Each structure stands twice: as structure tokens, then as C-alpha cells.
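Annex B. Sample input.
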Amino acid sequence: MASAAEQLASNLNFGAFAKATELKRRIWFTLGALVIYRLGTYIPIPGIDPLVLEEVFQNQGGGLLGVLNMFSGGALGRMTIFALNIMPYISASIIMQLMTAVSPSLEALKKEGESGRKKINQYTRYGTVLLAAVQAYGLAVGLESLSGSTGSAVLDPGAFFRLTTVITVVGGTIFLMWLGEQITSRGVGNGISLIIFAGIVAELPRALVGTLDLMGTGAISPVFVMTMLVMAGAVITFIVFMERAQRRLIVQYPKQQRGNRMVEGQSSHLPLKLNTAGVIPAIFASSLLLLPTTLIGFSGSEGTGWVQVIAAELQHGQPVFMIVYAALIIFFCFFYTAIVFNPEETADNLRRYNGFLPGIRPGKATADYLDYVLTRLTAVGALYLAAVCLMPEFLLAEFSLPFYFGGTSLLIVVVVTMDTVAQIQSHLLAHQYEGLIKKAKLRGRRG
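Annex B, continued. Sample output.
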């Protein structure tokens, strides 16, 4: 069976893709949905002065505004209907996962299977609407307080502007949530991740053009640009290697009596990823760390002396920023891994199906061993995430780079690409199996 699967995997070529009509339909649907998303990032919210808004973002783009604008594909900087992007849905999903871990009723609902999962998804949607409404109102109030050299960013501030902004932005977030679910069910890949991926990649050409302009004016040398490209390729290779790295624990199943014959025991593997938490720790850490400086920038005041010190120390490239950033990433790696993987539950499932780890007693000893292995893996994964996210900070501090491309965005792009390619390969493999089954049935009828 394994050799047949390997042979099919080796035969996945363009010809197989051309015959996979279902896969082509899914890919075209995904591309069409992403095009609709990109068109929506250019539909502005009514009542905004774009010139003043552009001036404000040039002055405050290094805070949380810059990070969220990167994730939204420039929609926040242009203040469009997709200004909040899909971030309220992600926040609601993470909150539901946290509540599932601490609430017995939600944990029991999660164990009900498909029906429980649908109820949790519905609660997540309600939470998305609530978070989007609160954030949209805060966005409207913040816009009214912004002003540039030519006047206020809002043409006619007041209750009507706030109401229309909340309705418009919340509607855009709900539409993106629905669009992401449609991509997941009718397209290829995870819809929510692909929307964030499309937003980040869409801003890449503009960054490249800006870099070429700097190289043309002599601000940076061509050798430096080539060095950065080579370094980026090395980092991408390193990310792919670490994301694929896993520890496989051998699971042994004893012999079983089936009828009058004894079935030999089987063995399988329990894969534990090196980076179980994914990119969630980096997103959480960057958002929390950049929040104080963004609030100071939104207030439009310099503040007291200690506020100025905090704002100065939490700038990109500063030692305090990098230390706190690394500490938050490591903390959220352990915290999120503890939520998504329960060693005791895994040990109970193994014992329920008569599985055991060689040399480890079932029950509590297995749970303790799984926790021991997972803790060591998470420590390495946390250091890896911290290193990737801090590398641009070191470059900014040492060489004063005129551009900034965070490690978080690079992680998202690489991980989403890997997941999407894996799903395409699985669809091709399933198409190959369907072709073999049809051929076998035709031969059986002829025979």
C-alpha cells in the first residue's frame, strides 16, 4: 500500500492536473474569491479625506497601524470597507479556544463531534460581529481625532459618521468571514489564511518598487539588495525545514483475537510538531507590544515624561523592544500549545484503543512522558519563532534599513503556501485513486 501511494505521488504531474476538473474548479473559485477581496480593499468608507489619512499613516505607520495595514493588504491605510480585514474573526476564534479550555460546558460541547463544532462556530460568528462592532466604533472615534496639515481626516464628524462607519466596516468583516468559509468549503486551502496571505502578498510589489527607487537614488547599493534577497531565501528555507520538523513517537498495538485466528500487533506513529502553535504567538506578541505606541500616536499628545520614555523604548530596533518581543513570543508559544494539545486526553485515547508507547506504562506515565517531550519541542519551536521574528529587528538596529518586512508576515506567507500546496497534492492524489478505481471496475465488468 505504501509503495502504491509513493508511486502515485511520484506521478503527480501537469497532465494529472489537467485531467482533475474538480481541482481546477476549486482553484478558479479560490482565485475569483481573492480577486473580489482585493477589489473590496479599494472601496473607501464615506466621509474620509484620503490626503489627510495618507499623511497620518506616513507619520504613524510604524505602530500597530502599520502591522494591521500590512495584514489587510493596505485596506486600513485607505480606510476601505475591509479596514478591519478578517482580524476580528481570528480574535473571536482564539477567544473561543481559550474559553473552551477553561469552560467545562464548552469543553463538553467540543466533544460532541460535528454538532458541537457547528455550535462553537456559531458562537465564534456572534463574537466576530461583537468585536467588529466595538473595533469599528473605536476606529470611527479615532478617525475623528486625526488631523493633518490640511485639516481633519473626517469631513463631517458626528453620530451619523460613526453609525455609517460601524455598519460599513462590520458588514465588510462579515462578508470576509463568509468569503473565507466559502473558500475553505468550495476552494483550495484555508480561506481565512489565504485572505491574510493575499493581503500581505499584494503589498509586496509596492515594497519592491520602493526598494528599487532607493537603489536608483543611491540610498542603498545593489550589492546590499542582492545580499538581502539571498538572506531572505535562506530564511524561507529555514522556515520550511522547521515547520516540517516533527517528533514521531512509536505507538504499539498488541495482538488481537479475531475469530479463530490471531492478528499480529501493529505499530503507528504519533507526530508531534516542533512548532505546534504556528504563527499565533508572533501575531499576539507584535499586537500587544505595539499597542502602547499606537495609542500614544492616536491621542495626538506627547504625554508625560514616562510616557515618552515608554514610547521611545518600544520602537523598532530598540533593545527593550526586542527583549520584550522575544519574551512574549516564548510565553504565547507555551500558552497556546498547552491549549491545543492535552497530553492527558491523548494518553486516555491511546489506552482506550489499547495503544501504548514502548517502554512507557499507559495512563499517567504516558501523559507525563508526552508532556515532557512536548515541552522540549515547544522550547525549540519558541526559540525558532523568536529568532525569525527578531531577525528584521536586528537588521534595523545594526544597519538602519530604510524598509521593514516583519518576520511574522514572512512566516504567514511561507506556512500558508505550504498548506495550500499540500492540499493541492492531496486533491491530485485522490483524483489518481479515483481513476484507478474506475479502471478496476471497468476491467471487472469486462471480465
